[in-house]
Amino acid sequence: MAKFLMLGKYSVEGVKGIAAQRTPKVAEAIQKAGGKVHAMYALLGAFDVAFIVEFPGNAEALKASIATTKLTGIGFTTCPAMPVEEFDKITG
Q1: Cβ neighbours for 34, distance < 8 A, ≥ 6 positions apart
Q2: Could you give the count of Cα atoms lying within 13 Å of 92 in the half-sphere of its Cβ?
Q3: Of the chain's two ends, which shows fewer C-beta atoms within 10 Å, N or C?
Q4: Per-residue pLDDT tens digits for 41-92
Q5: Structure letter (DSSP) for residue 73
Q6: Torsion of CA 11, 24, 28, 44, to 10 degrees
Q7: In this structure, are residues 72 and 5 in contact, taking their beta carbons and an 8 Å threshold?
Q8: In the chain, what is the greatest distance between 2 CA atoms, to the nearest angstrom?
Q9: Residue 40's pLDDT is what?
Q10: d(CA 23, CA 71)
Q11: pTM, rounded to two decimals
């Protein structure tokens, strides 16, 4: 399984739907797409939320990104992530 960062920015409609009850629904949508949630963070700055997740591949990450956007009104930028140690081996 590959790690991904899902970085989200609230839309106006997404802000209206903020509720603690929505968080488990988001985790469930990610799991239904074949993913596993490692962490969820609220942020200040360019993005409002960040999820650290794992998926078997890009297709599952894309499916989860679209599903969570539909569910929450949060627009996601989903990025593959690689441990620095693995990056060092590849580039070393």
Answers
A1: 55, 56, 60, 63, 64
A2: 6
A3: C
A4: 999 999 999 999 999 999 999 999 999 999 999 999 999 999 999 999 999 8
A5: -
A6: 40
A7: no
A8: 48
A9: 97
A10: 10
A11: 0.88
Which tokens belong to 62? 């894309």
Specify the residue for token string 């009104």.
Answer: 73
Q: Which residue has the tokens 């209206």?
A: 16
Q: Name the amino acid, one letter, at 50.
A: A
The first and second tokens of residue 6, run together, are 């899902």
Concatenate the DSSP letters of all residues of 32-65 into one string.
HTT-EEEEEEE-SSS-SEEEEEEESSHHHHHHHH
CA distance 36 to 44: 24
**Residue with the two structure tokens 């899902």:** 6
